[in-house]
Design goal:
The chain is mainly alpha-helical. The protein contains 8 helices and no strands. Helix 3 packs parallel to helix 6.
Length: 188
Amino acid sequence: MTFTKKDIQYIITIAFSALVYAFGIESFVSSGNLFPGGFAGISRLVVMLVERQIGLVIPFGVIYWIMNFTVVLFIWNRIGHKFVLYSILWFSLSALFSIIINVPIVTQDMLLIAVFGGLINGFAIGLALRSNASSGGTDFIAIDLSVRLKRPTWNYLLGLNAFVLMLAGLAFGWDKALYSIIFQYVST
């Protein structure tokens, strides 16, 4: 596998995108106790449940990275390697940045958190996609299933996101789940 000038541009954009994403997660999603779509939402749910149930604080980035890398182990030979490598870079940097950056809480207003957090999230993921990367996780699963089943599988991901939001609503209150829907809508 060779790397070109375009690859270097992609890598720089991916790194910037991961930093923007981590900023959005830490300054909006975490402060508002929101649940993004995909593995980020599942990771937030795990982090919050573990903290509430046993008092152990696990950084979002740790759970997010473990979940994403686990999927890579299963799909590595079925999806383009450069795409997977770029995606590994993106979710690894996102996880790392979310652990090491210390950002202030921007606002306490939940609607502003949902809307502007969603805009930042969508911008960051859009940059990653333009650079031939994805946030991994459920994107990898959807791509792999689409290829193997020869049909679109995005509706299954919508169902998974709805399930995560239902669990979040039951565990942490429906207001968080409903604001998370706004966040996800704005993000896409």
